[in-house]
Amino acid sequence: MRRVALAIAVLVVLAGSPSGIAPPDLGSDVARGDSHSSPEPIRVPNGSLPVDPDALYADVTTTLEVDAAPPRAIHLERNDHMEIHREPMPSFFRLVGIERPPSATRTATALGYVEGPSTVHLNEELLDDEAQARSTLVHEYVHVVQLRTDAFERVRAGVSAPNTTDGTIVRRAVLEGAAVTVETQYWERRDGDGPSPATEMTRSYRSTTGARQWIFAPYHYGHAYVQTRTDSPEAVERLYESPPRTSEELLHGLSPGSEPLPPLSVSVDAADWEVQKTDRAGELFVRVALDTELSAERAATAATGWGTDSRVTLSNGDDRAYVWALRWDDPANATEFQAGFEAYLDERATSGDGVWHADGAAYRTTRVDEETVAVLLGNESFVDGVTVEGTNGSVVASA
């Protein structure tokens, strides 16, 4: 099918939106901005589509059992205008292997994305494949409906710490999982030839690592969560109201709030180093990072049992260092993680005297208490000199 050929041609192609829906956090007034009384036909100002955009949007809203205004326009874009992540990944991501291949100028290329509820952008490579164009447009129409019905805001309100790395990937997973679910159901009903959109997304996630796997993760795990927690496309409305709180609940198909976060605080007292930010990475981040060097099974096992984590970013001029504390459900899971992370470091870096070194950065792990492990990484002098002590719920680093 054309879908497979296109994916190979551009290395990685997302079935639907790129990393988050562009832009990822539109305000509710924008989402409700257009009246949906007597809507005008959807315009395609720079070309034509192989499908009827108005009839297709009506089908999507009927499937979702919602009344939401259609987009005003669909713009066709050149393939090179649909690139994702041309800039490098954040430094902490790169330190743990969540980065694009060195030879790549982008992380992926999108088939489509929404720019607010009024505008959809489609990759013009879709125009000679009616089935692929229809499937992608269904996916993007779900995002239009999400924007029109305040799904973004509702999901944000239900996720724990929504602006952290963990909270952000959970929000994306719920929104993208719903879109993949509806896209797949429509494909099964209308086309049904070859692998489904959900199957292709799973293959894409499993066949790559690093930044590309991180991009595919919310589509793959979001669809799996929607399938586990709902019985029909229209039932995804319930997930917007009560999404998983963390990526742990997302990964394991757990009820929202069923795995409350245990207490964990991290403080750093380091001369010449300034605290820049704190973050929670989450179980999914741990799994994707470990998967860059370990087998998928070993990475998943080492990440399972995550209770919570807290990462402190420190700066000293242009230098960066990180204190990343992870609390686990029990001592056995903490031991499993530490052993897995050190095996991961053995593959990624050169070890000596309990410290690993790679590309000018250092890595070290330390057991703070029975359930808590600290990972120290970044600037070599900081990692070599910092001491860590504390309890399961309180970690103190000094340098």
Summarize the structure.
It comes from Halanaeroarchaeum sulfurireducens. The protein is α+β, with helices and mostly antiparallel strands and 399 residues long. The protein contains 15 helices and 16 strands.
How would you describe the overall organization of this protein?
Residues 23-49 are annotated as: Disordered. This is DUF4157 domain-containing protein. The structure is a single chain. The chain has 399 residues and is of the alpha+beta class. The protein folds into two domains: 2-251, no CATH class; 265-398, Protein Transport Mog1p, Chain A (3-Layer(aba) Sandwich), CATH 3.40.1000. It is 41% helix and 21% strand. The chain contains 15 helices and 16 strands. It has helices at 2-9, 28-31, 53-64, 91-95, 130-148, 151-158, 165-190, 197-206, 210-229, 236-241, 247-251, 283-291, 296-303, 331-348, 380-385; strands at residues 13-14, 73-77, 83-84, 108-110, 112-114, 119-123, 265-269, 274-279, 306-316, 319-328, 350-352, 355-358, 361-367, 372-379, 387-390, 394-398. Strands 8-9-10-14-13-12-11 form a seven-stranded antiparallel beta sheet. Helix 9 crosses helix 12. The protein is elongated and about 65 Å long. Mean pLDDT is 89; it is low at 1-33.
